[in-house]
Each structure stands twice: as structure tokens, then as C-alpha cells.
Amino acid sequence: MIKIDEKSNQLPLGDLGIIALKSSENLGHDVNQFISKWRNNVQKRNISLLSEAGYRKENYLLDAEFPRFGTGEAKGTVKQSVRGKDIFILVDVSNHSITYSMCEKENRMSPDDHFQDLKRIIAAIGGKAKRITVIMPFLYEGRQHKRSSRESLDCALALQELVQMGVENIITFDAHDPRVQNAIPLKSFESVWPTYQFIKALVNKIPDLVLDSAHTMIVSPDEGAMSRSVYYANILGIDMGMFYKRRDYSIIVDGSNPIVAHEFLGSNIEGKDVIVIDDMIASGGSILDTAKELKKRNAGRIIVCATFGLFTSGLEKFDNAYEQGIIYRIITTNLAYQSNEILSKPYYVSADMSKFIALLIDTLNHNSSLSELMKPDKKIQEFLRNKKSGSLL
Q: N or C of the chain: less Cβ packing under 10 Å?
């Protein structure tokens, strides 16, 4: 971890302000608590920081509201002054639990609605802030990142729109294709992998998991997740394999070409625990098909690690897969909305990202480098050594 004391020679760029949109209220609350605790524990020798007005607070969260008219139209308002502040805006565009009234009917907020609220709050700031950073864990329209026919480039347009409104930094997690940053080449765009948090969850929540090539294997469910899987395999020192999907390109079903077969490339997995790495679980069909194919090859326990657990088709199929022994554990982060139902499932593990986001915000507010946070190799190795030696508290 980058400690506050290590940044004591670097004054903040501006008074810190965090705006957590309603979609990210819980995450924003936890992030605020971490930063407040760290800054209130700054050692007395840090005179330069202690003398900064507004550096040590109990609350860095700014109040924002989105009142709506009966037609469903809305506006964004910020309840406190933002002049000269270093503003960080948290938004979860995948949060489908929030509703609003339109013509006396309840509507669920879509990603489009959340993105519109983000733009409303940037417009409400009105250029008065010192700097604006948007932390959008699930990248809006991230899967519509390239053009394969006469179609829209939604993600690129969204990024350009944010930059044109005055956003300096955009931070996301596990972008479907990080090359979308080419749409805004002169602005800061960071796509972060939650590698350390996943490994920590694996080791702490599955204590009998043996991380060596004789007992465990990393598997990529498709070619798109290869880079993630290669990194995990290298950092843990274990073997990996992958599936590639044979598709029928003669027809289109629900906007994509249907998969006709999963072909496995890799060494023998019989009896080994398998860790499947992916960026998201949407309906879950692809992940469950991968798990079934692994079970056909006599794999041991199957643990799925995905940054975003969206579960767009409900949980029944996952419940059945768990009861049948196809899935052992599913680990996703709290970067996307988590329902009480999924949190109660015996097979579900949540990897908490609030402390990491607090570190990102605090580091950027001090105008310090993110390199150490973006490359957690040493931190992971130290964690594994401490866990192996039994010295980890």
C-alpha cells in the first residue's frame, strides 16, 4: 500500500471532493471512510499537510441530487461549493436497482440514464472545479468499442463527450478493449485489473486451494480473456489453458453469431482445480458452458473470477450449477451492483475494491504516480509469501 506519509512532500492538487452518484452510494461511503481515516492519522511531522485547510475531514462526499419532472426529465444539482476542488465522480452505469417515476409509472434506470446523470452533474459543476476525474468501473458501452459494419461507436463517442465537458481523467476497470482510449489520445484513460483483490479473495476464502501446477490451472473461457489469464498464470507460477469458440457465422441470434462448439487448448486438467478468468458475467451462458466442458474433462473444483457480476438472466441457472457440482465458487467485485440475493448465495464471494479506489483517489489528489498501484506484482508476491509463512494477519 502507498501510505499517506510517503506522499507528505506532495501537496494536494486541490481540496478533495467526492461525488458518489446514487448508483455508487455504498462504494462512495466506504471510499470516504478509508480516506478520512488515513488523513486523520497523518503523523504530526507532516506540517505542510496539516496546515492545508480542508485536508483532514470526516467527510469528503459532496451532496448531489437529480430531481425529476413528471415527464421523466431531470436535472443535476450540487449542494455545496466546488470552486477550486479536485473532484472525483463515482458512477455505476450497470446498477439496475434504481428507479424513477415517469407519468406515474416506475422505470428502472438503464446505463443510458446513469450516463446522462453523470453528464448532468458535470454540467452542474460548470467548469468551477480545479479538475474532474470520472471513476466509472463498468465502462459505459464498453462492448460497443469497434465498428464491424455500419453501426455506431458508442463508447468512443461517450469518452469524447466527457472530455469535451472538461473531464481530465477517466478510470475504469477491466475494459473490454482498452484500445478504446485511442478516441481520446490527449487525456488520461486508465483501465485497471483487480488482480490483487482476486488473488486475496481466492487465498482467504478457499484456504485449501493449492496454487501450483500439479493441483491448479488457470483457464481462459475465450480468446478475449487470454491476456488476463496469462498474467494470472505467470504471477502465480501455474499452467494455463484456453477455450476458443467455434461460431456459426451464417446466422445471427440476439445480435451475435451462435456458438456451435467449445474447443479446449491446454494440458491435462483431470483432477485439478480450475480458475476461470473473465471480465464479466452477463447472462452467464458462456461461463456455464465453459464449466460444463471442463467437467467433461474431469476437472476438480471450478472457481470463476469475473470483475463484474451482472447476472442479467437471474441466478437460477447458477444455483442449479452449484447444486450439480459444476460450479464451486463465483468471485466478482463490488464495482457493480450486488443484490442481497446474490450476496446470500453460498457459492458467491465478493472482492472488495473500496480500499483500492480510495488509494487511487488519494494518490491522484496528491498528483502522485499511479504506477505502483497499476502494477501490483510485488504486492501479490509479498502477500503469497506472507500467507505461506503464516505471518499474514
A: C
The H or E element containing residue 35 is helix 25-40
Residue 355: phi and psi, rounded to 5, are -65, -40
In a domain, 69, yes or no: yes
CATH classification at residue 96? 3.40.50.2020
The set of residues, in sequence order, having a beta carbon less than 8 Å from that of 23 and lying 6+ positions away, is 91, 92, 93, 95, 98, 109, 114, 117, 337
Cβ neighbours for 268, distance < 8 A, ≥ 6 positions apart: none
C-alpha cell at 342: 446474490
Chain centre to alpha carbon of residue 225: 15
- Judged by average pLDDT, the poorest of 110-114, 180-184, 222-226 is 222-226
Residue 318 has pLDDT above 60, yes or no: yes
Please choose, from the candidates 195, 238, 231, the residue with its C-alpha nearest in 3D space to the C-alpha of residue 351.
195
pTM of the model: 0.90
Dump pLDDT digits (tens) for 198-223.
Answer: 999 999 999 889 888 889 999 988 87
Q: Identify whether residues 177 and 253 lie together within a single domain.
A: no
Closest CA to 139 of 154, 126, 119, 120: 154
Containing structural domain, residue 220: 195-351
User: Are 174 and 322 in the same domain?
Assistant: no
- Give the pLDDT confidence of 112-147 residue by residue, as tens digits: 999 999 999 999 999 899 999 999 999 999 888 777
Q: In whole angstroms, what is the distance from residue 335 CA to residue 267 CA?
A: 34
Same domain, 62 and 189: yes
Residues 6+ apart with CB under 8 A from 113: 100
